Amino acid sequence: MKRTLILVRAWEGGTSRDFEVTGQNAKALLALVAAGPRGITSLECGTWAFRLAAYCHILRHDYGLAVRTEREEHPGGWHGRHVLETPVEILAVETDTEAAA
What we know:
alpha+beta; three-stranded antiparallel sheet; two-stranded antiparallel ribbon; 2 helices
């Protein structure tokens, strides 16, 4: 199983802070950064982000990032589009293979 680790620099109020994000949360953050102001939906990340809203929740609450969720209506219901609002810089990306437990 591949595991992703990223080193991130977040900019808030003119100051920066560095931290690491791992696993699916890291993949979600990379997707949010790549999407920019367009944001992402779970359907757009459907091959790996089965719990995108949960990953965004963790990025908000555990890492202090501002991730906006917009409600998009469609026939039959609605879905959330997640947009990263905190300016971040990806400093390093590491992917390794860990042994299955």
